[in-house]
Amino acid sequence: MGSSEPTRILVAVSESTIKGYPHASISSTGAFDWTIEKIVRSNTSGFKLLFLHVQVPDEDGFDDMDSIYASPKDFRNVRHRDKVRGIHLLEYFVNKCHEIGIACESWIKKGDPKEVICREVQRIHPDLLVVGSRGLGPFQRVFVGTVSEFCVKHAECPVITIKRRADETPEDPVDD
Amino acid sequence: MGSSEPTRILVAVSESTIKGYPHASISSTGAFDWTIEKIVRSNTSGFKLLFLHVQVPDEDGFDDMDSIYASPKDFRNVRHRDKVRGIHLLEYFVNKCHEIGIACESWIKKGDPKEVICREVQRIHPDLLVVGSRGLGPFQRVFVGTVSEFCVKHAECPVITIKRRADETPEDPVDD
User: B46: which chain A residues are within 8 Å (Cβ-Cβ)?
Assistant: First the structure.
């Protein structure tokens, strides 16, 4: 009936893709809210949340199409900006956990999200992995890939995919 | 932080395929035990478990190869035996819940398990569906199909697949 060790839930979180929206993606906050409301509930001491944010190295390629890189410092600036954004994202979730009173840890990795998430599962052995999903149709999936489908197949722990609610889907469903 | 309504978890359970083993399948008990240990923990009042057993109408075709059906009563006997087995299976899980002190409901449906499970999800709107899985490789999956993969794709609620532990896999991994 529940060991003394808390259930460790790894939540993969991502930044919003919507420009000028400097926050967690809709699917990430949806996955987090669902986990708190339906799994953790009032039993905050029974769980520990682990937030993993994977940054794609050239994620901001589109934003930076018009940027001019003239010196090593320009690249350092980009890397600094990415770091600040990543930390800001994790701060959002850590603050939420602090308010609720649930233990948590958070960290950033760089690479292909689906591969890094599965590698981190192998490394830290969570009891459960929670991944948000945009809930795209098959046609859209071909172009954007889905991290959640890959994790369900390959992660070495149980996985829950939380689909975005229909009323939260932005105009372009690929946005998040 | 958890509404007053309990989180309703639908657990799809099946009978063991091992002859003379008149109990729940290894993957069903694994999925149940995991749900209690990792999700429900000590918060028994926060959850309600819903057990669904789907009976395949000709599931026992192999066992009955040598049977002779000579009268309508013979068919009634088979149906009666199926019913008794299904009830016995549900009794196992309901008794467990009773011991633990967690609310539950259980029922039997007939049909193709994967389709019936998804239809029941549409009907009763659980917060979460838990399905055990034998964790078969791609070659074995071709022949036996997997209920869990279908549910992950088609069920209209979050789904957790609990793979059977390696040390619980029977000699023939298709058995369960």
Answer: 41-43
